[in-house]
Specification:
heterodimer, A: about 450 residues, SH3 type barrels, Rossmann fold, 11 helices, about 25% strand, B: about 650 residues, Gyrase A, domain 2, 4 domains, eleven-stranded mixed beta sheet, 21 helices, globular
Chain lengths: ~450, ~650
């Protein structure tokens, strides 16, 4: 491939390289008006400008050279980096559970992609064993790359592909399934798989990492160990998300796919169960259940795969003074289901009423969820709530907005009969609506308060 | 047969390798063993905020002052070129649990790696670029933030964000020019609170503060030259007035090797005055290790060397020492290892007061996490195990005559790593000097700290975009830079300022003050230089400095003296006051030191009177005693009113005159 020689370079920078016949991975002496620079020419990230050339100098550092200052360049050698994660055969231990890792494109172990400057995941069992050898003490691992997309590009097509792949694996008799996944939409996938895979006899564990595995302090390895242990050894046969409990390298938490949410853009302990407690905590060699009731592991293979999804579903995040034309536009665009994310107990302003009535008349299914995330929709408390119900909006209990969106998509993929839609939406499959909110289902500690500070100082989290 | 005496062996081997004290060593000694040294000089920059977040820089906490703790473990990752780094693997082997203490005032979620970096602190970048220009470096066209792996936990991310600003510079020393490899800007690391067993604790106040590192080529050929180069770089940094001073604001890593040796890095040397002794001792340590290699190779080939070991039973031996008692009580295992052909080598000299066995003990502490004392051996300088026990152990291990035995103890789970560590270090002895970083002590000795990391630990920072440095920007920074340190040095000499003051003047960046006072107040720079280098330095060493005292205030002091036509002799007395109370008005200072304005004639009138007086009351009246006594009596009154040198002349003349009359 010709473009490989000048990987990532374009415009003026590319012309300079061509002019002096210097390749990427070539060792070069570059004479500039700022002095001489010696090193290996590196690929350049595609989105960076065309005015600089990147070089690795002998001390291992990278620098950029301004092409306007270049007087002369000479290639003195060539050595392409052989970038490979050490691969070792994953050992099989008789008696260990069989765990299948399904890849979607997350970063469990990874290497750098010069083109984008981002990281590329390692994936084969051999590569993973090279990066996280402890896995061999947990299970016998098989892997399959179902597809490779970034978390934010996951969608219905991928949910369906995953559900079907999981169905096959259960049929094949694996003891547990781990799905490597980017973290941004981990909880959407968690919800989708909960609805699409019902009555699973084995644990299905979604896992990701908040710090890519190209850094020594990454949470990837520990998350992976926790997930593998859960998949292979736990008694909980549900769709779960397994991520850090505290930000410290300590234990993981197993959250139900329907009650979990990413709550911080970058913290390791970003996933939290909302309105309930997590299912369990996990350390290597130990799972401590928190919830007393859960679906237990079984020996049979009686799983139901329901791979349906309609993409005619959308969400409307309400804000004060929202104009009805937004809702009208959604309806006119052909959306059949709308999850409204309302204020307080589930409200929108009166100005929207005509648009709501219009949508209802056109057969659009509308469900109310909450911006507050915690708590139940209650549309009886104020008149406005009653008005809205009369106009066709159905309260969705304490279903999280994203979960409601996924569920409505899944429901409308099966039926558009209003009664059936309502029945399916409001009949919980796995706690997406709970009957009660325990007192400890809502805990957001306020920093600065003395008793909280005392606690924080003591717990090392 | 006469019993082997380890102490004698230590002294004998010290003689064999030709160790001499530094004060006695001359260049020929260093040339013989091929002394070579380079520097990595770290300097904190004076900015309000840290380098990649908006936490304040320069606020520090005590060890137990923290709001929360976070625990992390570090795993090695692949470098950009696809290699695992040696240090990384060593640190991974040690399996440390690292706790970070954070105080909300000085650390945010960035420090504990829960938030990505904010754009680089432009003030810090600018200061670092100015210093790069002063160091005659080739400035890069684009700054690339790089991640440099540190698995010791000193940075919670597991890497330091760092970037090269310039390469290939130089600094002039008195007799030669030393070339610089590069200058980088980087974030400072955590400060260690403790490191015991598998638990290491750090605090995060210093973490993330902007720092620069100036790296020289290994061109220094004797210990004093290393210090000179280091001082030069530190003075250069300080000449900008834009860097931090005080404890820990400047630190250096010193690289040393001898002929046939290896680059060994002595880390975190806090004072440049420690450098000569440290480099001297290190170069001889390497020379000793080469001698050990020679002996070993004569005895056997590395490929044939094999260690054997056995767990010992506490009850079959006497083991009288309290360390072993302690090990027993804690349920530790105790092991013996036979080191074939290492006889007379465990007690081989390596550093003053240290032997080869210490090399093993140090690694057991760091790599296997066995707290010291963690071992004893058949050649321990203070033998703690009875001959009888050793005989039993030798039999147990089927040891031969030239072999040495080592006994160590530790928790069961660390024994495997410990055995590997011992074996590894012994095998390294066949190679000579292991590449490592070493921790320094004030007495000039060092101990093992880590395996020396290589270029394999560098990785581009995918969280940061490259920062272009346009020509205009660099040209602008180049204007208004301070003069070169070497020029300042030469100027001080040309002015005739006393040589012993230069270090003080340059290290406190007082040159601009002397120049300012010379130009604006027309005061002789020779006088000023000596005044600062002697009098100010004395005061600094003997009085308590007020927090708001600034050197600039000396300008005001001399301006006041000049404006009020006072003699400069009074400056020192006034400065003592000013140093402790910088806010005090100069008039009040004069009152405090009981200054009274008197005329020259009034002083001289008293001189004649006093000479007569001394004749009456003095016990040993001669010309010199008379003059001294009179000066003593009148000095205080004259101070500020009349130059003391002038007064002295007058007293002398008067006493001589009286004598002759």
């Amino acid at each position: 491939m010709t473009d490989d020689i000048f990987q990532g370079y374009k415009g003026d920078a590319l012309n300079i390289l061509k002019k002096f016949q210097v390749r990427v991975w070539g060792q070069a002496n570059v004479e500039t008006s700022r002095g001489v620079f010696v090193g290996t020419i590196l690929p350049r990230a595609e989105n960076d400008d065309d005015q600089h050339i990147v070089m690795k100098i002998v001390t291992g550092y990278n620098i950029g050279i301004d092409i306007q200052t270049i007087v002369k360049m000479k290639e003195t050698g060539y050595k392409k980096a052989n970038y490979k994660i050490p691969e070792k055969e994953f050992p099989t231990t008789p008696g260990f559970p069989r765990v299948k890792l399904l890849g979607t494109g997350g970063t469990i172990a990874s290497r750098l992609d010069y083109r984008t400057g981002a990281v590329i995941p390692a994936f084969s069992p051999g590569e993973l064993y090279g990066a996280v050898p402890e896995l061999a003490d947990i299970c016998n691992l098989e892997t399959e790359k179902v597809f490779a997309v970034f978390s934010e590009n996951m969608g219905p097509k991928q949910y369906i592909a995953l559900a079907k792949a999981i169905g096959r694996e259960i049929e094949n008799g694996v003891d547990g399934i781990v799905i490597g996944h980017g973290t941004d939409t981990l909880h959407h996938t968690g919800a989708a798989l909960t609805f699409m895979i019902q009555n699973s006899p084995i644990p299905i564990v979604l896992v990701g990492s908040q710090r890519s595995s190209d850094r020594p302090s990454s949470d990837a390895a520990l998350n992976l160990m926790h997930a593998m242990y859960t998949a292979g050894h736990s008694d909980i046969a549900e769709v779960m998300i397994c991520m850090f409990g505290p930000t410290s390298d300590d234990y993981g938490l197993l959250h139900k796919g329907t009650r979990v949410r990413k709550m911080h853009s970058s913290y390791r302990s970003t996933f939290r169960t909302i309105g309930d407690t997590p299912l369990a905590s996990v350390r290597r060699g130990e799972i401590k259940t928190i919830k007393k009731e859960y679906n237990h592991r079984r020996k049979d293979k009686n799983v139901k795969i329901l791979p349906y999804f309609s993409d005619k579903v959308t969400m409307m995040y309400y804000y004060p003074a929202m104009k009805p034309d937004i809702l009208d536009a959604m309806v006119d665009a052909g959306y059949k289901g709308i999850i409204i994310v309302g204020t307080g107990l589930g409200h929108v302003n009166k100005e929207l009423y005509p648009a709501i009535e219009r949508a209802h008349k056109k057969g659009v299914h509308m469900f109310m969820t909450l911006q507050t995330l915690w708590g139940y929709v209650n549309m009886f408390v104020y008149d406005t709530g009653r008005d809205m119900m009369a106009k066709g909006i159905i309260p969705a209990g304490n279903m999280l907005p994203e979960v409601a969106y996924i569920k409505l998509g899944w429901v409308l993929g099966q039926t558009d009969d209003p009664e059936e839609v309502n029945r399916l939406m409001l009949t919980p499959i796995n706690d997406e609506i709970t009957k009660r909110e325990p007192y400890n289902g809502y805990l957001i500690f306020q920093g600065g308060v003395p008793e909280v500070e005392d606690f924080i100082k003591k717990v090392r989290k | 047969m006469k019993k082997f005496d380890p102490l004698k062996n230590y002294q004998n081997t010290k003689k064999i390798i030709g160790y001499i004290k530094r004060k006695k060593a001359v260049q020929a000694d260093y040339d013989r063993i091929g002394f070579m040294s380079g520097l990595e000089v770290h300097q904190q920059l004076l900015t309000k905020e840290k380098l990649f977040c908006h936490c304040p820089a320069g606020q520090f906490q005590k060890h137990n002052e923290y709001d929360a703790e976070v625990i992390r473990h570090m795993r090695p990752t692949l470098s950009e070129l696809g290699e695992y780094d040696g240090t990384a693997l060593m640190e991974f082997k040690t399996r440390k649990e690292i706790t970070y203490r954070l105080k909300n005032e000085t650390a945010c979620t960035y420090e504990v790696d829960d938030t990505p970096p904010f754009p680089i602190n432009r003030d810090a970048l600018e200061i670092a670029l100015k210093i790069s220009l002063l160091s005659r470096l080739n400035i890069v066209g684009e700054v690339h933030i790089t991640r440099k792996q540190y698995l010791d936990g000193s940075i919670p991310t597991g890497f330091q964000r760092t970037a090269i600003l310039g390469v290939e510079g130089e600094i002039p020393l008195k007799n030669k020019t030393v070339k610089l490899i590069q200058l980088s800007i980087e974030e400072d690391s955590c400060r260690e609170v403790s490191d015991i067993g598998h638990k290491r604790i750090y605090k995060t106040d210093r973490l993330g503060m902007p720092l620069i590192e100036t790296v020289t080529y290994p061109e220094m050929v004797n210990p004093d030259e290393v210090k000179e180069a280091c001082d030069y770089i530190r003075f250069l940094n300080r000449s900008t007035g834009l860097v931090r001073i005080g404890m820990g604001a400047g630190r250096q890593d010193v690289n040393v090797s001898c002929k046939g040796g290896t680059r060994v890095e002595i880390k975190g040397v806090a004072h440049t005055r420690w450098i000569p002794e440290l480099t001297h001792v290190e170069v001889y340590r390497q020379w000793s290790l080469l001698q050990i290699r020679k002996v070993l190779k004569e005895r056997m080939a590395k490929a044939d060397w094999k260690m054997n070991s056995k767990e010992l039973n506490y009850y079959l031996f006497q083991f009288p020492t309290k360390e072993i008692e302690f090990a027993k009580e804690n349920g530790f295992e105790i092991w013996a290892a036979n080191l074939p052909k290492f006889g007379q080598l465990l007690s081989h000299f390596t550093q003053p007061g240290k032997v080869f066995a210490d090399e093993i003990a140090d690694r057991l502490k760091v790599i296997a996490c066995l707290e010291k004392p963690n071992m004893t051996n058949s050649e321990d300088l203070e033998q703690s195990i009875s001959d009888e026990d050793f005989e039993k152990i030798k039999t147990l291990l089927q040891a031969e005559k030239d072999d040495a035995q080592l006994i160590f103890w530790g928790p069961k789970e660390d024994i495997k790593t410990a055995l590997e560590t011992i074996e590894e270090r012994c095998l390294m002895a066949f190679e000579g000097v292991p590449e490592e970083t070493r921790k320094s002590f004030e007495n000039g000795t060092t101990i093992f700290e880590r395996v020396l990391p290589g270029a394999d630990r560098m990785y581009p920072d995918t969280d940061s975009a490259p920062i272009p440095l346009a020509n205009d920007y660099i040209d602008n920074l180049g204007k208004g830079l301070p003069t070169d340190v070497i020029d300042r040095y030469n100027q001080l000499r040309a002015w005739g300022v006393s040589v012993d003051t230069y270090n003080y003047i340059l290290s406190n960046n007082l040159f601009p003050l002397i120049l300012d006072i010379k130009e604006k107040l027309k005061i002789d720079p020779k006088y000023m230089g000596n005044f600062l280098g002697h009098r100010l330095k004395y005061i600094e060493g003997h009085y308590r400095r007020a927090a708001n005292f600034k050197y600039k205030q000396l300008y005001n002091l001399f301006k006041y003296l000049k404006d009020n036509k006072l003699e400069f002799d009074i400056a020192e007395e006034m400065l003592k006051q000013l140093y402790e109370h910088p806010k005090m008005q100069f008039d009040s200072v004069l009152t405090t030191i009981k200054f009274k304005k008197v005329k020259r004639s009034q002083i001289l009138d008293q001189v004649l009177f006093l000479i007569e007086k001394f004749k009456q009351i003095g016990r040993n009246v001669n010309e010199l005693n008379t003059q001294n006594w009179v000066m003593g009596q009148i000095r205080k009154l004259a101070l500020g009113n009349m130059a003391l040198t002038d007064l002295k002349k007058e007293v002398k003349a008067a006493s001589e005159k009286l004598e002759n009359d």
